[in-house]
Specification:
The protein has 647 residues and is α/β, with parallel strands linked by helices. The protein is built from 21 helices and 14 strands. The radius of gyration is 33 Å and the shape is elongated.
């Protein structure tokens, strides 16, 4: 065909190309193209005629029109493959824009931000923070669970997280339908509609292959981008879920459209035979079923109420799906490099997790005790490490779902011993709480493994005013932040703590920490405790900052407690405040603080920069975030929160 339709120079080049291929295959042509041409052998091939249906014994000269259609179809197919890879690279560029921007900001906060200045903010930067970086999507909701009746169905991502995720979704839709060359007369498809189906089917399969490494990378704990960009695990989990959702969309489109093309081209009998006796199809169907189970088990309501089952499905599915996809692509002649990249990323994460466990603690004994809904674990780590506010570790309890780990914030560190606190929930934390509650004196020893440390330190030492807001068990992160800041004794730094609890019983287990903070010295802390229940009625509780003795401090506590369960605690707090640098403690019963007013007043009265750090129930954290967002375009204020919301 090339002899008949191509220019001589093109003919020579084509001949040389095939000559090289033949040489690699072990076949040596004994003559050059010009010699074959001179002998008339090539022209003999071109002169042969072919009757449709007959057995061909020599190469056939194709009709020029049909040949051009074949070439057009091959070019269109190649363009489809090329654009799939090209668009896949644009995905990486898209993520890169957000990551590089966050990296630059992280470098500034870590290494260039300094205390001092005034409490006002650059207007443009303030508007970006208010309407993009700090704000929730709408209505101030982020961690507060969205419920359908009494069933939790999810939480709301932040505005910038939503924009990033939906930008990815928009690109996915555009890329799926863009750049294809549809034309009449395609020899592989009977009409343009089937062309659409066939090309989109192929591209969907390619995109599923391309984004697979991203899914595993975004879901890994040991993600270097968390360090470089200071994104939370929660943020990467949002990306993990959205790339995973598009993966199942691509897989579903790939399978469904391929079925349509095969059924229309081959008929029902051949279609059934093709789908159940073709290895690449069988592996693909298996991968699709596994993906479906993983997606269904990953629905928020299911993983929230049946976390253990979700975890088993996710681990088993992530292992099973990779060989299925690998053989599906290999049998189909596709690119398996993305599968190897995925295996490398997943393997790296698991190896590093094991190394963290081996380094920080295997088979250690923890002194466990229960106070209310809280379980305390005191662990003497084999490797000493000084975590910072914002960091956490994953703990495995060997007797209770040893395969399951949960993030724990450290409450305090004393003499090399780390105290972790967890609130009772379903699964491992609930079983552990029940076991300790049934033990004598509500204490016992448990074997634990520690995988740490994760999370990026919050630069609270770079602010002149630090406002800490805790709800319930969230006080654990705040105790540690307080002790860390007091130990640094930063000149002129003001530390304010608000703690909201339901019952005065919480003051009992907080007694030791309150006393410990007061004895540390360093900067004083303004502690405001709100007990929202009516179990205790306090007329006036205050500590005079000018008192100089334990007895004076005790006498300054004028209170009348109807049910005296907290009297010893109050006395102990007052006595501890007799040190020279005293903490000011206010305890209020039967009311809640107005978080918006607290944050606005703190920012307006601060001499310069303010950091707000919140940890507690979703509604409390959302109130703090919303209040900070409202004034981010006016005051020099930043917001941090501890929220393990991916579970």
């Amino acid at each position: 065909m090339c002899v008949q339709y191509c220019e001589p120079s093109v003919q020579e080049g084509a001949w040389n190309y095939w000559d090289k291929l033949c040489s690699k295959a072990g076949t040596i042509l004994d003559k050059s193209y010009s010699e074959y041409l001179a002998e008339g052998m090539v022209s003999y091939i071109c002169e042969q005629n072919y009757t449709d249906g007959a057995n061909a014994t020599v190469p056939i000269l194709q009709n020029r029109t049909d040949l051009l259609l074949d070439i057009h179809a091959e070019d269109a197919w190649d363009i489809n493959f090329y654009l799939s890879s090209y668009f896949g690279n644009i995905y990486l560029v898209y993520w890169g824009v957000f990551l590089i921007t966050s990296f630059i900001r992280n470098v500034y906060v870590r290494f260039m931000k300094k205390r001092g200045g005034n409490n006002r903010v650059n207007k443009l930067w303030g508007l970006i923070k208010r309407y993009f970086l700090v704000s929730s999507l709408f209505n101030g909701r982020h961690l507060t669970k969205i419920k359908l009746g009494s069933v939790a169905i999810g939480v709301m991502p932040l505005r910038w997280q939503t924009i990033m995720a939906w930008g990815f979704c928009s690109l996915s839709v555009v890329f799926l339908f863009s750049g294809n060359d549809f034309f009449v007369g395609d020899p592989y498809y009977k009409n343009v509609n089937r062309q659409h189906v066939g090309y989109i089917d192929t591209r969907a399969g390619h995109f599923a292959n391309i984004i697979l490494p991203q899914i595993y990378f975004f879901g890994s704990r040991n993600n270097i981008l968390m360090v470089l960009c200071n994104w939370s695990f929660d943020t990467f989990n949002i990306l993990h879920r959205w790339t995973g959702r598009w993966f199942i969309i691509y897989v579903a489109l790939h399978g469904w459209l391929l079925s349509m093309v095969t059924l229309r081209n081959a008929g029902q009998a051949d279609y059934i035979d093709y789908f159940w006796h073709t290895p690449e199809i069988d592996y693909g169907i298996g991968a699709a079923f596994v993906t479906g189970f993983m997606i269904l088990s990953g629905i928020y309501s299911f993983r929230h109420y049946f976390y253990e089952i979700f975890l088993w499905f996710h681990i088993a599915g992530s292992i099973t799906i990779l060989p299925l996809i690998y053989y599906h692509i290999q049998w189909g002649g596709g690119d398996v490099h993305y599968i190897w990249a995925t295996i490398a990323l997943w393997g790296f994460d698991r190896v590093v997790r094991v190394c963290r466990i081996l380094y920080f603690g295997v088979g250690m004994k923890a002194d466990a005790k229960v106070v209310g809904d809280a379980t305390y674990l005191e662990v003497n780590l084999s490797r000493k490490y000084k975590p910072q506010p914002g960091q956490y570790a994953f703990l495995y309890v060997m007797r209770h779902n040893f395969w399951e780990s949960h993030p724990f914030s450290v409450m305090s560190e004393r003499d090399g011993k780390y105290i972790f606190v967890a609130k009772r929930h379903h699964g491992m934390t609930g079983k552990l709480h029940s076991r300790i509650s049934n033990a004598s004196e509500k204490s016992d020893k448990v074997s634990v493994w520690i995988e740490g440390w994760y999370g990026q330190p919050y630069p609270l030492d770079k602010y002149d005013t630090v406002l800490l807001v805790a709800g319930g068990i969230g006080i654990t992160a705040m105790w540690f932040a307080c002790s860390t800041l007091k130990a640094k004794n930063i000149s002129g730094q003001r530390i304010i703590l608000y703690w909201v609890v339901r019952s005065g019983e919480s003051l009992k287990w907080a007694e030791e920490e309150l006393k410990g903070l007061s004895k540390m010295g360093g900067n004083s802390i303004e502690i405001n405790i709100y007990v929202t229940s009516q179990d205790y009625t306090v007329k006036d509780i205050s500590a005079d900052p000018d008192l100089s003795s334990d007895q004076d401090a005790e006498n300054s506590l004028n209170f009348d407690i109807e049910e005296g369960k907290s009297k010893d605690v109050i006395d102990a707090i007052g006595q501890a405040n007799g040190s020279k640098e005293k903490d000011r403690i206010s305890i209020n019963y039967g009311e809640k603080p107005h978080i918006q007013h607290v944050i606005h007043d703190t920012a307006s009265n601060a001499p310069s920069s303010v950091a707000v750090f919140a940890c507690g129930p979703g509604s409390l954290a959302d109130a703090c975030r919303h209040a900070v967002a409202e004034i981010s375009d006016t005051y020099n204020i930043d917001y941090y929160e501890d929220s393990f919301s991916w579970a």
